[in-house]
Amino acid sequence: MTVTNWTDYFEHMLPEMTAELKHYAEFETPTSDKQSVDALGDYIAAQFEQLGCRVRKMEQPIYGNQLIIEYGTAEDSILCLGHFDTVKPVGTIEQQPLLEKDGKLYGPGVYDMKNGIVIAYFVLKTIIEQQLPLLHKLVFFWNTDEEVGSPSSREAIQDIAAQCQAVLVLEPSTEDGEINTSRKGGGEFYLKVLGRESHAGNEHQQGVNAIEELSRHIPTIQSWTDYEAGTTCSVGLITGGTASNVVPGTAEAVIDVRVSTQAERERITRLFQQLKPIHPEAKLELSGSIYTPPMERTERSAALFRWIQQLAAEEQLHLQERGSGGMSDGNYAAGSGTPVVDGLGAAGAGAHAVHEHILIHSLAERASLLLRLLASNLPGEPRS
């Protein structure tokens, strides 16, 4: 069977793909519920094993077991990266049931990001059934703690990515179908001020007001924001004091930080470390970090995107690139130096929201694109 337009091919499979995505969504998988996450993981593992894949489970004591799935024996590898943990608790699907309406599929987890794994499964199934030649070994890493920053998986992601020629992140796309060639990195800093409590009426002068001390640092921290550099510092939460008639002895701020480059990551970290008390008797305690590195747009990732654009054009699909302020496991993969593109999953909107949905037809478009990409050369490789 010779196929010239894979989008048309997968459009005939949309009922099957949609039904499988619904089945995935019926497994509710909040990150903190290991048993529920592992139930879907076992199902995914069995599905890929039936295709002849080699499946290894990375056992985890707290989070769900991560899946490393391989197909093929080529020396060079392509990594497909995604996650099947979600943010909403078990029982959400009863209040937000799956719904098909106006060409969209609504439901918790269908957009972020179970559709990406479904797309990968049907693409691999088609590659096998159509006996398409593979120039690379295919590696699929399906994660289980992405929604909480990938604490148990980030090192494995970076290690596996370092062994591959490209990383394709199957996080969802915008409704316009844009592909991410960069993502901000980020983290949180915690600034605690230790002052001295005293009676606000009788011994006010003996106190060291921790809230006042903290408030004097906030404008400084906020001033480190540099929109042109893609850096934001946002004091998002402050706590302090015990009662209105007590000079507060402690106060604390939680600061969200996003950076677009490693240089900015280092600059902001250095500035936090250089903070000194303004009141001579106050003390500062700093913790936290920018723990997620930025996924920077490199020459190699830009070349990979241009190659994807060319492949999309063969399906009459027109792709644009974008940068995102949000983070994904693509950030950790990019830390390996391997070129990464992100947002190759279905188009849609509403991640974590009540209106979470995908555009059903985009399942076929993204499947056709992924198939062409997995069955092709990569930029810089000789055409077969």
Automatic annotation (TrEMBL):
One of its Pfam families is: M20_dimer
Gene3D superfamilies attached here?
A: 3.30.70.360, Zn peptidases
Organism superkingdom:
Bacteria
InterPro entries hit by this protein: Bact_exopeptidase_dim_dom, Pept_M20_glutamate_carboxypep, Peptidase_M20, Peptidase_M20_dimer, Peptidase_M20A
Q: Which UniProt keywords apply?
A: Hydrolase, Metal-binding
Give every Peptidase M20 dimerisation domain span.
182-274
Q: Which PANTHER family match?
A: ACETYLORNITHINE DEACETYLASE, BLL0789 PROTEIN
Q: What is this protein called?
A: M20 family metallopeptidase
Species the sequence originates in: Marinicrinis sediminis
